Amino acid sequence: MTDLERILPLWRELESNGSDYVLTTVVGVEGPSYRKPGALMLITADGRRAGTVSGGCLEAEVANRAWWLTKDGPILKRYSTAAEDGDRPYGSGCGGAVILLLERGTTARVLLSAQDSAFRSRTPIAVATIVEGPQTGIRAVAEAASASAQDASLKGLAELAFKRGKSMESALEVDGTPTRVWCDFRPARTGLWVFGAGDDAQPIVRLAKELGWFVALADGRSHLATRERFPLADEIRVLKVTELTGQTAHLLGSIQPKDVVVLVSHSFEQDSRVLAALLAGGVTVGYLGVLGPQSRTRELLVEAASIAGLAQERIPEQVEEWLAHLYAPMGLDMGAEAPETIAFSILAEIQKVLARATARPLREVRAAHVAKEATPTAASTV
Questions:
Q1: Helix 294-307 crosses helix 268-275 at what angle (to 10 degrees)?
Q2: DSSP track, 183-219
Q3: How does 313-322 read in b/e, with b if 16+ C-beta sit within 10 Å?
Q4: What global pTM score does this model have?
Q5: CA-CA distance, 315 to 256, in Å (whole number)?
Q6: Do residues 31 and 160 both lie within one domain?
Q7: Under a CB-based contact definition with an 8 Å cutoff, are residues 128 and 181 in contact?
Q8: Are residues 45 and 140 both part of a single domain?
Q9: DSSP sequence for 311-372
Q10: If DSSP codes are grouped into helix, strand and coil, which group holds residue 91?
Q11: DSSP character for 125?
Q12: Is residue 239 domain-resident?
């Protein structure tokens, strides 16, 4: 479960009761930091809190002073865990500093309402927030980028962040005074579609829900695709497998272009028909993986091409083209054998693909970065 999944239910409860709260947002970091800009923590008047703004060293201190600090309105506060700032004043920390925006519900409500709506609808948003000066906490929300997205206004900055698809810091002149603006871009919540409701699908669903993903499950076998077997799934569908062809992609559900699809049914007929509906139906996804050896996947694709009605002479070329875009067999080489470790290797590969990361050990990535910085350039050796 992610921070947002903990924060939003508590926020809804507080709003329904008319209770005030303090929202703390990381809007900047200096040096190493466990949490990055955009991290949130919600604090209630009775001492409850949801979310984190550090690795555990700052939360209690921030919560203890949050209500006093925000009594006159939103405020920017810097917290350092570096040794030179007082022998690591808040515990061991990461050795860096975080800049936090603390505010009451009056201004925070705009952000949390937008986050709640985007979370439910699985749509991206960008929120531009003034984080210094007398208008600290004023926001603009963009749920799409207009053709004229530019930085002449707070709304324009939000739209620009949305258009770029990334968070950014900018400046804006307010009443003749340059002010700092933090633009937080949030991509749509990842959606995972699991086709197959066997026992090995259960840890996949559980782990994906821990990551905060929307998870839908589908299978042609009604005795397997049940709420009792998959209590955490957001959606469960019983497929009419025999109706799936290359022209019936709509029967698979509301799959979005950046969603993830995994086939784990162990049913040749079901997997081939789902592939026909996806591939021949023109469904675009961010990741499409098939469990099992590649030899089986080739056979599935040949059958899928036949189901889709492709001419026999076109099938071999089409199969190779499809195979080049599949993750088959899916998962990282992690020595996985049990269903739980296999699920872990699959989700690790999906995270790698979605984040466009290397999946290399961080110590190797860091060592390569240090070595690159230490290598003299041609200009420096002249």
A1: 60
A2: EEEEPPPPEEEEE--STTHHHHHHHHHHTT-EEEEEE
A3: eebeebbeeb
A4: 0.84
A5: 27
A6: yes
A7: yes
A8: yes
A9: -GGGHHHHHHHHHHTSBSS-S--S---SHHHHHHHHHHHHHHHHHT-----HHHHHHHHHHH
A10: coil
A11: E
A12: yes
For residue 183, CA distances in Å to 41, 92, 115, 116 come to 18, 30, 14, 17
Q: 3-state DSSP: the chain helix, strand, coil percent, rounded to 5?
A: 40, 20, 40
Model pLDDT for residues 14-72, shown as the tens digit of each residue:
999 999 999 999 999 887 788 899 999 999 999 999 999 988 888 999 999 999 999 99
What the block records as the tokens of 334 is 């992690």
Q: Are residues 241 and 269 in the same domain?
A: yes
Q: Which amino acid is at 337?
A: E
User: Cβ neighbours of residue 292 under 8 Å, at least 6 residues apart?
Assistant: 266, 328, 329
Residues 277 and 282: their CA atoms lie apart, in Å, by 8
Q: Are 127 and 111 in contact (CB under 8 A)?
A: yes
Q: Both ends of the chain: CA-CA distance in Å?
A: 54
Say how many domains are in the chain: 2
pLDDT confidence band for 382 (50 / 70 / 90)? very low
Residue 360 located in a structural domain: no
d(Cα 67, Cα 380) in Å, to the nearest integer? 53
Residue 71, phi-psi category: left (phi > 0), alpha (psi -120 to 50), beta (remainder): alpha
Q: Residue 100: name the closest of 157, 42, 152, 48 by CA.
A: 42
Q: What single DSSP character describes residue 58?
A: S
Q: Each residue of 169-207: b (16+ CB within 10 Å) or e?
A: ebebebeeeebbbbbbbbebbbbbbbbbbbebbbbbbbb
pLDDT of residue 90 exceeding 70: no
Q: Helix, strand, or coil here: 235?
A: strand
Domain with 134 in it: 3-186
Rounded to the nearest 5 degrees, what angle is found at the Cα of 140, between the Cα atoms of 136 and 145?
145
Task: Indicate the residue type of 365.
Answer: V
Reported as a single tens digit per residue, the pLDDT across 172-196 is 888 788 899 999 999 999 999 999 9
| Complete DSSP assignment for 133-183 | STTTT-EEEESS--TT--SSSHHHHHHHHHHHTS-EEEEEEETTEEEEEEE
According to DSSP, the residues that pair with 127 across neighbouring strands are 141, 184
Pairing verdict, β 21-30 and 97-104: antiparallel
